[in-house]
Write a structure and sequence with these properties.
mainly alpha; hpI Integrase, Chain A; three-stranded antiparallel sheet; 8 helices; globular
C-alpha cells in the first residue's frame, strides 16, 4: 500500500493476539534455587567450571544468552578498580558493566583451567568438545548451548520444565530490585531501552508463600 502496489491491506481486520503487558511469561528462580544452581556444577572439570561461570554471569549480571555466548576473553577487564565485562548488545551497541566479584572469580577459574586465559581475542566460553572444524578450539558456544547448560543444572535440582537462560535474566532483575538496586541502574545492566520492559521481568509482586490459599486450612 505504501508504494502503490496494493489497494487494501489484507490483514487490516486481523485481531492482534492478547498480550500480557504487565508481566513476562519467563519463569524465575527463587533465591534459594539460585544459590543451589550456582553451586550445582562440579569444580573439578572444565565443563563444570564453565557451567559455574556461565550461571554466575547469567544470575549476577542478567545477560541475554546471545550476549553470554558472544563474550571474548579480553572482555573481562578492570575499570576504576572493579572487575567489568564489555558486552555486545542487540544492534551492535557496546556496554561496559561492573560485575559481581564472585562472577569474576569464576570466570578466571574457568579460563585458567581451560588454558585460554591469554587469548584476549578468542571466545570466552567455548565448547568442551571440538567438532573437527578449523580453529574449532577458539569458537564461541552457540546461544542454544547456553540454554542447555541452564536446563542441565536446573534439571539436576528437579526444575526440569519451563526454565531457560532467560530465567537467569528474570531472576537477576527481580533480585537486584528486591535488594535495593535502582530501576534505572538495573535497566542499564539489562540493556533495556525502556524501563517498562525491565518491569516485565520483576517478580517481586508474586509471593506464593503469602497466597490466601495457604491460610485456608481446614
Amino acid at each position: 500500500m505504501r508504494h502503490g502496489h496494493a489497494a487494501k491491506n489484507p490483514v487490516t481486520e486481523v485481531e492482534r493476539p492478547a498480550l500480557n503487558r504487565d508481566e513476562s511469561s519467563t519463569l524465575a528462580f527463587s533465591k534459594a534455587q539460585a544459590r543451589k544452581l550456582l553451586d550445582a556444577p562440579a569444580e573439578d572439570t572444565i565443563a563444570g567450571l564453565r557451567g559455574r561461570a556461565i550461571l554466575s554471569v547469567g544470575l549476577q549480571l542478567g545477560l541475554r544468552r546471545a550476549e553470554i555466548a558472544a563474550l571474548k576473553v579480553g572482555d573481562l577487564h578492570q575499570n576504576r578498580g572493579y572487575d567489568s565485562l564489555r558486552v555486545m548488545r542487540k544492534g551492535g551497541r557496546r556496554d561496559a558493566l561492573a560485575i559481581n566479584p564472585q562472577a569474576a572469580a569464576r570466570i578466571r577459574a574457568y579460563l585458567e583451567a581451560a588454558g585460554h586465559s591469554a587469548d584476549a581475542d578468542g571466545a570466552m566460553f567455548r565448547p568442551v568438545r571440538h567438532n573437527g572444524k578449523q580453529d574449532a578450539g577458539r569458537r564461541h558456544m552457540d546461544p542454544d548451548a547456553i540454554d542447555r547448560v541452564v536446563r542441565k543444572y536446573a534439571g539436576a535440582l528437579g526444575l526440569d520444565r519451563g526454565y531457560s537462560a532467560h530465567s537467569m535474566r528474570a531472576t537477576f532483575i527481580t533480585t537486584a530490585l528486591e535488594n535495593g538496586a535502582q530501576l534505572e541502574d538495573v535497566q542499564k545492566v539489562a540493556g533495556h531501552r525502556d524501563p517498562s520492559t525491565t518491569k516485565l521481568y520483576d517478580r517481586r509482586g508474586y509471593n506464593p508463600e503469602k497466597a490466601p490459599s495457604f491460610f485456608a486450612t481446614y
